[in-house]
Amino acid sequence: MSLLQQDTTELDDAAKGEEYTKGTTQLGKAAIVATIALSIAAFVYVYANEKPPVATGEILNVWAHPLHTETSGFDANGAPMAKESFDQVFVFTQVRLHNQSSGPLFLINVLTNMTEQDNINSSYAANKIDYDRFFVAYPDTQIPHGPALSPLDTVIQPGQTVEGTLVSAYKMGKQEWDARKGLDLTFSFRYQPSLKLTPKVPVIDR
Questions:
Q1: CA 206 to CA 87: how far, in whole Å?
Q2: Cα separations in angstroms, 173 against 64, 119, 178, 180, 182
Q3: Per-residue DSSP letter, 142
Q4: Does domain 55-205 have CATH number 3.30.1890?
Q5: pLDDT at residue number 11
Q6: Which of 28, 121, 125, 205 sits at a 20 to 30 Å CA gap from 186?
Q7: Which helix (H) or strand (E) holds 131?
Q8: Is residue 126 predicted with pLDDT exceeding 80?
């Protein structure tokens, strides 16, 4: 073997060794990254499954109040105008919430979620003022006028259980409301995970 051939062979062997070393290093880095990722995933899984939710709750009653409204045909000055009519469904939900965390829970909003044929129709719960206004406007309603569970006004202290009623409104007729596929509520707390509750009681039409 000539000297030139020997040098070429040695260079080829060195290059192969360098490539093998690089491959081994990359495999080592990949193994370390995979190990760290698995460790993080395991920690998140254990943490999420062992730490109890900050709040629990149950839905005690649900009342639906379909309402057909027709305008008077006069504007604010008494001048004639075209009459308009529209349908609404007011959904009243009596709930019980319990704070099982070590800090206070601040309720920031509540969504009533109605599952329709192809989508979810959500409506924010009204505050206490609008909740009480309904009973002033419709004093003959058969829905119990209990204490309101008002978003932005409700703070649940550690270990405390609160009960109240909230109301959401949908612009639809009774037929569309009756065709719903499901109903649930989402309670959102400041800086804490949301709580989703599904009624186990029938919806009562009033």
A1: 15
A2: 12, 17, 9, 12, 17
A3: -
A4: no
A5: 46
A6: 205
A7: helix 128-137
A8: yes
**The total number of residues written for the chain in this structure:** 206
pLDDT in tens, 183-192: 999 999 999 9
Domain ranges of the chain: 1-51, 55-205
Quote the distance between the C-alpha of residue 76 and its chain's center.
Answer: 40
In tens, the pLDDT along 136-159 reads 999 999 999 999 999 988 999 999
186, two tokens: 């989402």
Question: Tokens 């920031």, residue?
Answer: 108
Instruction: List C-alpha distances in Å: 154 to 58, 65, 112, 183.
Output: 17, 25, 17, 23
CA 128, 113, 206: angle at the middle one, nearest 5? 65
Contacting residues for 22 by C-beta, under 8 A, at least 6 apart: none
